[in-house]
Amino acid sequence: MIIILASRWDSTAEAVAARWAHRSVEVMTPQDLCVSGWRQHLGACESDTSSSDVAVVQRRLLPQREITGVLTRLPWVTDGEVIEVAAHDRGYVATEMTAFLLFWLSRLKCPVLNRPTPTCLSGPYWRAEKWVHVAARAGIPVQAARRDTQSESAANALPPTTSVAVTVIGRHIFGDAHPELLAQSRRLSELAEVALLTVRFADAERGAAFLGADTFSSLDDERFKEAALEYLCKTPAANQ
Amino acid sequence: MTDPDTILLWGLPSDPPIAAVAEPLRRAGCPVILLDQDGVLDTEMTLNVARNVEGVLYLEDERLDLSMVKSVYLRPYDSRELPSVAGAAENGAALSHALAVQDMMLSWSELAPALVLNRPSHMAANNSKPYQALWLESLGFKIPPTLITTDPEAALQFWRRHGTVIYKSVSGVRSIVSRVSDAHTARFDDIASCPTQFQQYIEGTEYRIHVIGDTVIASEILSAADDYRYSAEPAKMLACELPGAVAARCRRVARSMKLSVAGLDCKRTRDGSWYCFEVNPSPGFTYFEQATGQPIADAIAQLLMAGPPALQWDPARRETPRLR
Question: How far is B207 from chain A (nearest CA, A)?
Fold first, then answer.
């Protein structure tokens, strides 16, 4: 079964699941962590019991060995995901759930798009400055990331609407841009160690400045959904 | 003009580890600047990043060119909890400014070519105890039998199977480690509302092991409490030497996690097995230093004075090793 880990408010997750309906696929949300049945073992003498690990998806128990791939659309669990919990406990519960999901996703042997890191459940959480710095060090022309506290409202501003987006999903690269920009996007996905990355350039021409990137994609394009499904259906070794 | 060997301390002057590290640095005549977090409303900052990382801090009466900073020791508190910010309106200018300074400092700390103790992203693994446990296990430490569950019946079975069991938070949020008792069973149904971590209680002697660069400083903790930090009877602490192989394993853990300073919470059983429960990336070491007289602050100060290693930090290098 393929799992789409998403916010309870993420309508795209449902759309992706519908598109993949010919496969066994379910959407998991933080609400599933509030259901009796999760069992995860680790440590000495528990390795023999790890085959009995159980997850919960759509309020139903699922033997963990039946999970064949996970698409992660949730960077972390926020208070807004656990509104059933008493208000003063929401922050703690959300933090506990994020910590649990980092552990759970990290040790899955199946393809996970993107694999979690301690800073984000879907790839690394890199600020704009880090993306720009890594790109520049890789020899990619960049638009410098500038911030100052006296005009902070401009910080993390979205790139100009005229920017060009390139999307990397597994072995596929999508974007109406010069091949050099596609290759640079691939290089950035390798440096960030992610299989799903959206990269933005100032324009589509050769030498265009890198503006920014993020480890999420709206997956609003049908080709993106197919590429993500292809990635999740491959063996882990094939995705290395 | 900023001194090119400036050592920056970021946190609260009253924070014991910050104060303890500042003292030997000043004694040695180092150019030290303390970025007092509580003065955040009088702090301005610029950040300009491309291939190089440039930044300037404007303090009340000082301009600090961040490219002149050789080393940084950071222990920032959540900006919302700072005395000068607490109570500020949620969407007000004061809180926005404090959060902006905090975020820009964190961003700079990730990328600065200086020695940073420790980079924020490297500290983040501490936010999940079982995630860290996977890591520690892969590096040779034993991990107690552990169950994380939302299933009350599974928790009950685990308790019966292992006899003495403790429970604690999954995240890095500080919680009191407690033994499960009959009194808890009445509340076991609450487990269904959030994954809860149960762990077999391991009998043995506790150790806090500080790794500072290549230096390992170990303290043995004598306490009968489940969690010595909250014991009514103060724990007794002794300076001690570790077996060479264990010290080497501790160094390997810290290096693997890219932590130049780390505090490992360990236990040695009667049969000589070593368990590690947690690696604290920003240890409150003064508690142990005061009890044992071990020179932990001095070791951190020495590391800061030495500055970054010859091999410069490369932000594109893997942030965390792949778990097996």
Answer: 20
Q: Which residue in the block uniquely carries the two structure tokens 């030997």?
A: B24
Q: For position B324, what pLDDT does the model report?
A: 41
- Per the CB < 8 A criterion, the answer to whether A138 and B314 are in contact is no
Among partner residues A36, A102, A149, which is closest to B151 by beta-carbon distance? A36
How large is the ipTM?
A: 0.92
Mean pLDDT for the stretch of residues A94-103: 98
Letter string b/e over residues B137-170, b meaning 16 or more CB atoms within 10 A of that residue's CB: beeebbbbbbbbbbbbebbeebbeebeebbbbbb
Longest dimension (CA), chain B: 67
**b/e burial code for range A194-210 (CB count within 10 A of at least 16 → b):** bbbbbbbbbbbeeebbb
Contact B105, B10 (CB under 8 A): yes
Listed by number, the residues of chain B in 122-161 with a beta carbon closer than 8 Å to a beta carbon of chain A are 124-131, 133-134, 137, 142-152, 154
Name chain B contacts of A92, Cβ cutoff 8 Å: 173
CA distance A143 to B216: 44
**The pLDDT of residue A170:** 96
Cα nearest neighbour of B96 on chain A: A152
- DSSP bridge partners of B250: none
Nearest to B133 among A42, A56, A148 (CB): A42
Rounded mean pLDDT of A204-231? Answer: 95
Is residue B176 predicted with pLDDT exceeding 80?
no
On the 0-12 / 13-18 / 19+ scale of CB atoms within 10 A, B97 is buried
- pLDDT bin (cut points 50, 70, 90) of residue B312 is low
29-88 in chain B: CB under 8 A from chain A: 43-51, 53
**Do residues B219 and B239 lie in contact, with contact meaning Cβ atoms separated by under 8 Å?**
yes
Residue written as token pair 């109570």 = B87
Residue of chain B minimizing CA distance to A34: B193
> Using CA atoms, how far apart are residues A4 and A229, in angstroms rounded to an integer?
11
**How far, in Å, CA of A110 to CA of B265, rounded?**
32
Which secondary-structure segment (H or E) carries A190? helix A179-192
As beta bridge partners, residue A5 has A28, A72
**Interface contact flag, B143 A43, Cβ < 8 Å:** yes
The predicted-structure confidence for B48-69, as pLDDT tens digits, reads as follows 999 999 999 999 888 999 999 9
Contact A5, A101 (CB under 8 A): yes
Distances (CA, A) of A57 to A64, A210, B92, B268: 10, 39, 40, 39
The model's pLDDT over B192-232, given as tens digits with 9 standing for 90+, comes to 999 999 999 999 999 999 999 999 999 999 877 777 766 67
Strand, helix or coil for residue B172: coil
